[in-house]
């Protein structure tokens, strides 16, 4: 396990930056309580295919160098580097707040996506069970859900996912951007290895849960050659759908990613960064709507065509099936009586 030193890119919200003269101190895990009075986040971006999401945690112990959520930690007065990985914020009232949202007359039972920002099954979830508590609320109200994760801990909640599948809708997307365990450890150091994630796909699918896979991010010159074997492996495991997203490096993520890349994969680093610039108009990132999720240029077009052809050959869907309509209902004494 690598020693994580306290090191963060300069924050756009901070006037000063500390630089240590003789090495940075080790970054220890610190957990903070979030006093938010709501749990549902509403999205209006045309690039995102869902409107509402639940994020019980801010920051993520998985430590993925490419994580687009890193800059959001700067809004809390933390850094996007080691702070994002070790200063974690938890919403302990998440299940209670979700129930309050569902009890409002304005709520119509729309799809709720878990992990729109950081992974809802990161290691803290094993003991805190905030995601499980929220899923229990969704099951009680028969509200459709979709989960995005790279953690095998999702298997723990098969009972709730099975109940949601029977009475509403439950879909799970597992992120599998790599097959090479060594490369995965370099870029996503504290996430489960690829083989374990594929096994999670197998177990969820065997239980009757709708499972798809995100080959995301596609990092030019690093994991693009693994697209076909990844899709073949997850299809064999039971995945019914797949999607891909080219690497995005918004804000301070670019510094975190390039630093990690040069430290862990020095021989490949410059080739990879050159490829990234090719698909981002000469820069490391394109923040424009539409472009940021697709990239530009012949290289990424070829990769996308390869992905699409493989998905079709394997008989997989390019997107998750939509939830059934009108499953949401508020539990109550009379309703429970009729359901007995």
Short description:
With 340 residues, the chain is an alpha/beta fold. The chain has helices at 82-86, 94-103, 125-128, 130-141, 158-167, 181-187, 194-206, 227-237, 253-264, 266-279, 298-313, 333-339; strands at residues 30-33, 40-42, 52-54, 57-58, 87-90, 112-114, 145-149, 170-175, 210-218, 241-246.
Total number of β-strand segments? Answer: 10
CATH level-four homologous superfamily name: Aldolase class I
- Kindly estimate the percentage of residues that lie in beta strands according to DSSP: 5-15%
Radius of gyration: 20 Å
Separation of the first and last Cα atoms:
52 Å
- The amount of helix comes to 25-40%
CATH level-two architecture: Alpha-Beta Barrel
Largest sheet: 7 strands, mixed
Poorly predicted regions are: 334-340
SSE run: EEEEHEHEHHEHEHHEHEHHHH
CATH fold description:
TIM Barrel
In the residues, how many domains can be counted? 1
Structural class label: alpha/beta
Which term fits the overall shape? globular
Strands ordered across the widest β-sheet: 2-3-6-7-8-9-10
CATH class: Alpha Beta
Describe the structure.
With about 350 residues, the protein is of the alpha/beta class. The chain has a single domain (about 30-315), classed as Aldolase class I (TIM Barrel), CATH 3.20.20. Helix content is about 35%, strand content about 15%. The protein has 12 helices and 10 strands. The strands form 2 sheets. A 7-stranded mixed β-sheet has the order 2-3-6-7-8-9-10. A 3-stranded mixed β-sheet has the order 1-5-4. Helix 5 links the parallel strand 7 and strand 8 (about 170-175). Helix 4 runs parallel beside helix 5 and helix 7 (about 195-205) runs parallel beside helix 8. It is globular and about 65 Å long. Residues about 335-340 have low confidence and may be disordered.
């Amino acid at each position: 396990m690598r020693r994580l030193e306290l090191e963060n890119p300069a924050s756009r919200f901070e006037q000063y930056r500390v630089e240590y003269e003789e090495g940075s101190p080790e970054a220890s895990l610190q957990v903070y309580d979030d006093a938010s009075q709501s749990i549902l986040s509403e999205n209006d971006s045309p690039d995102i295919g869902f409107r509402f999401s639940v994020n019980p945690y801010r920051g993520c112990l998985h430590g993925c160098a490419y994580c687009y959520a890193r800059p959001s930690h700067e809004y809390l007065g933390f850094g996007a580097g080691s702070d994002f990985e070790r200063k974690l914020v938890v919403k302990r009232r998440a299940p209670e707040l979700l129930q309050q949202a569902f009890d409002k007359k304005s709520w119509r039972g729309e799809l709720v996506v878990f992990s729109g920002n950081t992974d809802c099954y990161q290691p803290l979830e094993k003991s805190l069970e905030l995601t499980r508590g929220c899923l229990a609320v969704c099951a009680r109200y028969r509200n459709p859900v979709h989960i995005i994760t790279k953690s095998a801990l999702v298997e723990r909640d098969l009972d709730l996912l099975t109940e949601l599948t029977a009475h509403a809708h439950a879909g799970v997307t597992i992120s599998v951007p790599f097959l090479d365990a060594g490369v995965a450890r370099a870029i996503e150091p504290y996430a489960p290895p690829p083989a374990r994630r594929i096994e999670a796909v197998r177990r969820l699918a065997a239980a009757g849960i709708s499972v798809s896979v995100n080959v995301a991010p596609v990092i030019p010159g690093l994991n693009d050659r693994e697209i076909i074997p990844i899709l073949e492996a997850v299809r064999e495991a039971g995945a019914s759908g797949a999607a891909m997203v080219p690497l995005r490096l918004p804000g301070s993520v670019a510094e975190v990613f390039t630093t990690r890349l040069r430290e862990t994969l020095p021989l490949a680093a410059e080739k990879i960064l050159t490829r990234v610039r090719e698909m981002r108009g000469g820069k490391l990132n394109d923040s424009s709507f539409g472009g940021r999720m697709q990239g530009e240029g012949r290289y990424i077009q070829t990769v996308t065509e390869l992905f699409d052809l493989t998905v079709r050959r394997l008989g997989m869907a390019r997107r998750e099936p939509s939830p059934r309509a009108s499953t949401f209902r508020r539990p109550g004494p009379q309703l429970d009586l009729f359901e007995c």
